[in-house]
Amino acid sequence: MTEEAQVPVTVLTGFLGAGKTTLLNRILTEEHGRRFAVIVNEFGEEGIDNDLVVDADEEVFEMNNGCICCTVRGDLIRILGGLMKRADQLDAIIVETTGLADPAPVAQTFFVDQDVADKTKLDAIVTVADAVHLSDQLGEHHEAEEQIAFADVVLLNKTDLVEASETNEVENRIRKINPFAKIIKTKHCSAPLNEVLGLDAFSLDRILEVEPDFLDSDHDHEHDDDVTSVSFTSETPLDLDKFQNWFGELLRTQGQDILRSKGILNFTGVDERYVFQGVHMLMDASPMGLWPEGKSRSSRVVFIGRNLENMNLLEGFESCKAH
């Protein structure tokens, strides 16, 4: 297989809430004339990232309930195999990993599986880093460090929310872990796409320097077992005031342990669907347009964090239903 025939693959990684979906939506909506296939991996059974990714011409494949680097690798190989049957219709593939994935085994797939290695080429690992929270995440989560360590490009996102001195500190932390990565400071992931895609930047030689056993298929892999996810759905519309009161209090009192929260909400008396995304105590909510024709107007929420079982999340969510 000649290198020209290989389809480039960008692995998009970064800790929970850093802005990966924002970047993905930009890639899918900007006028660049390229055709992408997107593979999205969710943490937890109730996938909602597919709904947060804008309606685009590109196909989005979702893999649920498992870390992409463990149980889901077979799915990744299977989806890539299907895409390769029409490689001539694709310019590139983007794999967005869950925020809890160690990117090393994902990258490994493109070397260890011969079919995948013949037909695709790992173009770059792009890590979106949250300038507000990265320092804490690096201290607490093995995966956050791995994501920086394996990056070819780090988008240091949300720089508008921190002082310049803090940004410099975070940049120094990144440099200590990975002196090779190109760091691009952004807000709302607004880096030029030609600095993110089509870079031919992934260097296996560099990775082997960092991790000599990288190509051993039983790659050592740890998980942060304290982190769990729960998700809830409701066919009954929610009361806007009740939800705001409950959720605001929840983030105020438990936000440190809620790494990530996100959802699509159906409020009684409101025609548009609402989407919210939270990272710790920060939360952003906005209308997302009218509900799609023929799609049930159900609310779905996902929480990822520690000690979730002690937060009475189900009872709180149920109490927000309109009666």
Description of the structure:
By secondary structure, this protein is an alpha/beta fold. The chain folds into two domains: 6-210, Rossmann fold; 228-318, Hypothetical Protein Yjia, Chain: A,domain 2, CATH 3.30.1220.10. The protein has eleven helices and twelve strands. The protein has helices at 20-29, 49-52, 73-84, 103-112, 114-119, 134-140, 142-149, 164-177, 204-210, 240-254, 313-318, and strands at residues 7-13, 36-41, 59-63, 92-96, 120-130, 153-157, 182-185, 228-234, 258-265, 272-279, 282-290, 299-305. The protein has a seven-stranded parallel β-sheet, with helices on both faces. It has a five-stranded antiparallel β-sheet with strand order 8-12-9-10-11. The longest helix is centred in the last third of the chain and has 15 residues, at 240-254. The termini are far apart. Residues 65-69 have low confidence and may be disordered.
